[in-house]
Design brief:
This protein is about 75% helix and about 5% strand. The longest helix is centred in the N-terminal third of the chain and has 41 residues. It is globular, with a radius of gyration of 25 Å. The two termini are about 35 Å apart.
Length: about 300
């Protein structure tokens, strides 16, 4: 009797190890190893079309040759600093706009009838059925001089407001501007904000709002004191899903932002393919990854604290 139980237990342990180990192997193969390769290139000397080895053996001695000049150059060149700041600024503005637009929509979805929610959810996911590149090109056509979105904005005299805020270069010119860039990123990443918020709001216990109403709280007070705090996990998750890819975005700034737009993705492309300076490009990529890891660490810490609080 004990032997079958022991065999069963061994199979369960092996299955658990496989379930836990496969994701770690995936991360090791497709994140850690490429990251280490890029890190190695960033501290290596160029040698023709290749790179010198960081660890070499000479006369029986193991020598470590690391080049930090690229990292020092990043701190000295204003271009890279402005690029990092600009990327973070555009990503933060996009995240705030997605939150301002996505939260009411997610709230409406969560409070809609159960029969209507699948249709609303499909509308949010519908853009994913079309190629990302085609959707960006579509906005390029809509915002050109004779595009109907551009003509509508001009007819409503919104271009005057955008020009006064220095978001467009001239009246009626919407392309290759901060306005077109942010508009394209908000449109593209809005579903990534709505879906986590909807998942969080749909699970909320509505009896808490009823109890607050019985105690004299107005709907507005109940929203700010109950709904928003309880949806904090969805807000953080959605913000991370929008902010992180926006920092390194390349396609949207290239097609909608114009050549004057400073973003890390564009600088990486120039360093890799225009300047052919792979060590410098790898250095920029490593710093960008470190910038992204900080909000991820904050999110993971919040998640851990939230799980401990539930226990």
């Amino acid at each position: 009797m004990m032997r079958p139980l022991q065999t069963c237990w061994n199979w369960l342990r092996r299955g658990r190890t496989a379930v836990i180990g496969l994701p770690y192997l995936w991360l090791l193969a497709f994140f850690l190893l490429p990251f280490l390769i890029v890190l190695k290139i960033s501290v290596s000397e160029s040698e023709g079309v290749g790179f010198k080895d960081v660890l070499v053996v000479k006369q029986g001695l193991l020598q470590l040759s690391v080049k930090f000049s690229n990292y020092v150059f990043l701190t000295q060149d204003d271009l890279y600093f402005k690029t990092f700041v600009s990327s973070i600024k555009y990503a933060a503005v996009t995240t705030l706009l997605c939150l301002a637009i996505g939260y009411p929509f997610a709230y409406f979805m969560a409070r809609a009838k159960a029969t209507l929610q699948p249709a609303l959810l499909m509308l949010v996911m519908l853009p994913f059925w079309t190629s990302f590149l085609l959707r960006v090109y579509a906005w390029k056509g809509l915002l050109t001089e004779h595009g109907w979105v551009a003509e509508l904005l001009t007819a409503l005299r919104i271009d005057h407001l955008l020009l006064s805020a220095e978001l467009i270069p001239a009246l009626g010119r919407y392309m290759n501007s901060p306005f077109s860039l942010v508009l394209g990123m908000v449109y593209t990443y809005l579903p990534f904000m709505i879906l986590p918020l909807y998942g969080n709001l749909a699970k909320m216990d509505l009896r808490l709002l009823e109890a607050a109403s019985d105690l004299g709280a107005t709907p507005w007070v109940g929203f700010w004191t109950i709904t928003v705090p309880l949806s904090k996990a969805g807000i953080i998750a959605g913000s991370m899903l929008v902010f992180i890819p926006c920092v390194g975005e390349f396609v949207i700034p290239e097609l909608l932002g114009g050549p004057q737009t400073l973003m890390i993705g564009r600088v990486l492309w120039d360093e890799f393919f225009s300047n052919n300076d792979w060590p410098m490009a790898s250095t920029v990529a490593i710093v960008m990854i470190l910038l992204i890891i900080v909000p991820l660490a904050i999110f993971n810490r919040y998640q851990a604290q939230a799980q401990e609080a539930r226990r």
